[in-house]
């Protein structure tokens, strides 16, 4: 099932929820009809923004490989997300605070690619020990010897929309350039409008002189990561030797 279809399903569920909320906030007139209660308060827009980062691990790695030439996922996603938040806090008249990080990746087969399987198991285990982090992995599907991710983008989309419904964040910081997430960004903004609050959806991604893809996810704030910033978040642990 594609991200678009998943978001369409979630949107339908969200619309039902919105109707229930609207029904509960209506008042009955003497004629027996219901009229909506009018909310006149200004849209919620706090100066301290709760940020949840959604990291597509393979998308981030492939972008860093093309932009900077790194041959394995050497980033610390937590430190990288914090650095992006700090950068945006300085650039905007608001403070971005990382409150949670969701990390998603395909898991190489132990029999087909034991070194990478060992690498990701060790890296994910270390990340899972941090209370800020929630990891999700799914076995790669192999076709003609090539491992392909299945369901990773769908899981990210579901989590981002679900947490928007729960008002869990003010900023959805997506580390990916996957244009499938355009529909996710649209749905998050629709949810925020219903909730009478402002939510920022941002796309963070590496850029370099040799990397021609300089576009973030459409209809999001684009936050390019240069090599200077990226290198500050290189993970010092060598998971390949474990």
Average pLDDT, to the nearest integer?
A: 87
Tally of helical runs: 7
The overall number of domains is 1
Structural classification? alpha/beta
Compact description:
β4 (95-107), α4 (114-128) and β5 form a beta-alpha-beta unit.
Folded structure, characterized:
It contains seven helices and ten strands. The longest helix is centred in the first third of the chain and has 22 residues, at 3-24. Residues 19-40 have low confidence and may be disordered. The chain is globular, with a radius of gyration of 20 Å. Helix 1 packs parallel to helix 5, helix 1 packs parallel to helix 6 and helix 5 (152-165) packs parallel to helix 6 (182-194). The strands form three sheets. A six-stranded parallel sheet has the order 5-4-3-8-9-10, with helices on both faces. Strands 1-2 form a two-stranded antiparallel sheet. The chain has helices spanning 3-24, 57-68, 77-91, 114-128, 152-165, 182-194, 227-231; strands at residues 26-28, 34-36, 48-56, 95-107, 133-139, 141-143, 146-148, 171-175, 200-206, 221-225. The chain has a single domain (44-241), classed as 5'-nuclease (Rossmann fold).
């Amino acid at each position: 099932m594609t991200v678009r279809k998943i978001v369409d399903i979630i949107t339908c569920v969200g619309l039902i929820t919105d109707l229930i909320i609207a029904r509960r906030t209506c008042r009955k007139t003497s004629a027996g009809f219901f009229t909506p209660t009018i909310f006149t308060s200004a849209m919620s827009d706090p100066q301290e923004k709760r940020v949840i980062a959604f990291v597509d691990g393979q998308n981030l790695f492939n972008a860093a490989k093309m932009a900077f030439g790194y041959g394995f996922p050497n980033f610390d996603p937590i430190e990288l997300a914090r650095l992006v938040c700090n950068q945006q806090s300085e650039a905007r008249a608001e403070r971005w605070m990382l409150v949670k990080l969701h990390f998603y990746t395909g898991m190489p087969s132990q029999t087909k690619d034991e070194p990478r399987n060992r690498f990701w198991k060790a890296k994910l285990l270390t990340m899972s020990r941090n209370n800020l982090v929630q990891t999700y992995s799914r076995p790669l599907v192999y076709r003609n010897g090539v491992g392909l991710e299945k369901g990773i983008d769908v899981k990210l989309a579901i989590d981002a929309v679900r947490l928007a419904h729960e008002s869990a964040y003010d900023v959805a910081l997506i580390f990916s350039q996957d244009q499938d997430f355009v529909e996710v960004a649209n749905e998050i903004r629709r949810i925020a409008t219903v909730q009478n609050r402002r939510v920022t959806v941002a796309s963070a991604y590496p850029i370099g002189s040799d990397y021609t893809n300089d576009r973030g996810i459409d209809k999001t704030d684009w936050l390019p990561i240069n090599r200077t910033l990226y290198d500050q978040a290189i993970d010092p642990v060598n998971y390949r030797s474990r």
